[in-house]
Each structure stands twice: as C-alpha cells, then as structure tokens.
Task: inverse folding
DNA sequence: CTGCATCCGCTTCGATACTG
DNA sequence: CAGTATCGAAGCGGATGCAG
C-alpha cells in the first residue's frame, strides 16, 4: 500500500493517501461522526476486516484520522477525523456533487444504503449561494427499534447551513430515508404525501430551494474548467 | 476493473469510475488539453501500456473522455475530456488544493515533474475571491530545444482568471518551472532574481496575491466541515 | 513510430477462520 | 468486539510482440 506515483503533483500525493479501495468511504463515514471498528465494518458493507484494519492504521499513521478511547464504562475506542482529515471536506463535497449524476444511473436493488447518508447529502448539497430564510427539520424514520435521526437545514444570505439541533422554526419533514433524500434532490414534493409534514406547509414546499443538486448535463458555468 | 462498491452513494459511484490507479492522473493531463496515447504514457511516467489502454477504454466507455481523430496529415488521434469529464473540474481542483500540503513533505529527487503542471497549479490555486487588477504573464523556460510554455493570470473582482493568451498588461515572469511554481505558492519572490522579470516591477512583486495556496495547518473557516 | 494486446511474476484484495 | 492469519483470485508493472 505504500504505493508511490513518484510525481511532484498534489493530485498524485492525494491519490497515494486516499486512492486505495475503501479509503474515501472510510472518510465518508467519519464525516458523519466518530465510529467504532465494527460500525465501520457494517456501514462499509463488504470490506474485509483485514483491509479495514490496514486502511485505518495507514490513515492513522498519516494523521488523517485518530483513535480516541471512550470513557471508562465502554471498553472500546472510536476513530475520528483529525484536522488534516477534516480539511479534505471541500474536496469530498465536490466529489459527491459530481458523483450524484451517477446515483440513479446504474442503480441495483442490492445497493447498500445507510439512513444517515441523508444528512451527509444535505451537507454536500447545501447551497452556497443565498437561500430563502427557511428552517426545515428532517426526521429520518428508522422503524420502531431505533429512534429517528434528526437534523436541520437553515437558509440564509451566506447559503444553507446544516446542523444537528432539533426544533426548527418552520417545518418538520419525517419519512423514509430515500423519500427525504428525494426532497433534497428536488425529486420528491414534500407536500405530496410521500413524507409526513408538520408546521408551515408553504415553507416545507420550498425545502428543495435550500439545496442545489445539479445532475448530469446541466453544464453550469458555476466554476471555470480550463480553456484550450 | 468493473469493481462495484454496491452502495447508493455518490462518493462510491465516483470511486468506481475514477478510483483505480492512474485514472485521476489521466484526467489531470487531459485538463491541460487533448493528448495522444504516447504523450500520456510519457507524462504519466511509470504507467504500463496495458493499464493505460484499459483505463482509456474504460473512461471512454463511461463517456468521461473521447477520442478525436486528428486532421489527415497526422495518422493518429487524441484523447480529450467530454462535458461529463470536464464537470469533474471543481472536485479535481479541491483535491489538488488539499494535496498541496503533501507536495514538499515526502519529496524525492526522482519525482517526475512536467513543466506545464505549473499552468495547472495556476488554474487550481487561482483565488476565487477578489484579487488586485494585475495581469501577469508566465513563460516557462524549456531549454533551447522547445519553445517556452506561456500563460497569463488576470486578477479581478470575481477572482483570478487564467488563460492562454500572450501579452499580459503588467509584467512577464520567465524561468525554470519549479521557480515559477514557487511564485504561485508565494515561496519565491519574483523580484529576488530566481526568475527573469520584464515589465512593471511592482506589479510582478504582487504576483502571489493572485493565488491562494494554503498549506497544512491553516485551518481555514473558508468552507464548512460537518459539525458533531 | 504509434497504439495497443499478450504473457509473466509480484502485489493487492476478499472471504473465511481464528485469537485476545 | 477488535482485530490478525491464511489462502485463492484479481489487479498491476514490465517486457515483448505486432499490426497499421
């Protein structure tokens, strides 16, 4: 794994650190919060324990992640991002925004999905331009055995912010993970009945305006690719 | 290579398309312009022909790149980015910005370097906030056998733009590739003698203000990593 | 000469079994 | 729960061959 491209180039350097299989997905999970080994193993759905252990050690050696022992009652530890690891966020976000165009295309029924990836999607697709001053809560239904996952999106002049507070000002959307993902993508109408709605009906209807998920072909002039 | 993570996640999708070895570096070369097979082979410095051929075919099948036959006199063709491939630019740029902190760290003398990566660095590190209204030309010295590579950076209220025009308004910096890279990184003083300077001396001295290369530890609040 | 395809050792990966 | 050990399979780098 200490593979080197041997090139004086930041892309080559980044690929050496994060280019091997599962590495980016480990970061994905840790962007949602600290996780234990077995959490990662389950959420990564298919990684072998040996590879997961090796990746974690590798990333820890490079100080992109760190282990933190949990308070005494728990006999375990969690992995979490270091500042250098968190600094990858802008890149992670743009990769996700690009990859979104391939989400449905090539979708298989057996594809794994974790409910709180909805929050990650909200973080990645939160608009960075001015958005309407709405505050919408999302309650991700997890069935009866687990409590709902909750987060909140707030529009404003500097773009949309996503945090973990409860009690949004305007409305709460509750429903299946994929339905809420559809709301973020603008593909599911919040007042159409696919999600449970409470609070301001009109505000909820504009929930999609807090996000900007641009799918294939939209050719945005939003950023400047090189000219030739 | 048709490896699948089998996860309904844009990061997983992107990794399936671009996660295998050399793929990102192929994109890097094509962001600089169309290239032939042997150009890529040389500039990638270490890729085997079989892997390069397979990657190119794979990326073409997914329509991230395309082949274009050259006008009749040339019996060859070039590879170039498609719109879907060019759409990866914002992600590419952020990866490069993150990877920059590992450029010097771990540098080996044998590291390969292509002179026109300097232009790519200018594209990646062009500031996106307001920059002084300067226009600086860069002439990358290639020795006597090849002509200089030329590009131009222009500051403005919307950030710095980089293009291929000659004849900048304010000053021209000419020198070795790594010295010019140092100017972009703010590590080499243009008026210090490491590069050849013509035009407005004061303007040239502010060349670094057109770029914002933030190295490790600078913990910018510039973008919002997730909260916990 | 360019643009690959083929073959051959080496490395990496995935699945399973096993240990503290 | 948190990994290490093992082994067949797939991916990779390097050399060679070959058609246009």
Result:
């Amino acid at each position: 794994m200490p593979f080197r491209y041997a090139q004086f180039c930041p892309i080559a350097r980044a690929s050496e650190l994060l280019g091997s299989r599962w590495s980016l997905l480990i970061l994905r999970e840790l962007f949602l919060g600290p996780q234990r080994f077995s959490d990662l193993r389950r959420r990564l759905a298919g990684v072998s324990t040996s590879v997961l252990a090796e990746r974690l050690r590798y990333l820890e050696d490079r100080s992109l992640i760190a282990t933190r022992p949990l308070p005494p009652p728990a006999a375990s530890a969690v992995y979490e991002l270091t500042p250098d690891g968190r600094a990858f966020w802008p890149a992670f976000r743009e990769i996700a925004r690009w990859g979104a165009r391939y989400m449905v295309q090539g979708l298989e029924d057996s594809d794994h999905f974790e409910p709180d990836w909805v929050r990650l999607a909200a973080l990645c697709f939160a608009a960075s331009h001015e958005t309407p001053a709405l505050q919408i809560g999302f309650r991700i239904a997890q069935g009866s055995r687990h409590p709902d996952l909750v987060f909140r999106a707030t529009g404003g002049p500097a773009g949309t912010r996503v945090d973990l507070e409860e009690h949004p000002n305007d409305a709460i959307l509750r429903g299946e993970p994929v339905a809420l993902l559809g709301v973020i993508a603008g593909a599911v109408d919040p007042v159409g009945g696919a999600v449970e709605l409470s609070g301001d009906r009109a505000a909820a209807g504009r929930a999609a305006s807090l996000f900007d998920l641009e799918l294939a072909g939209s050719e945005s002039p939003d950023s400047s690719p090189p000219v030739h």
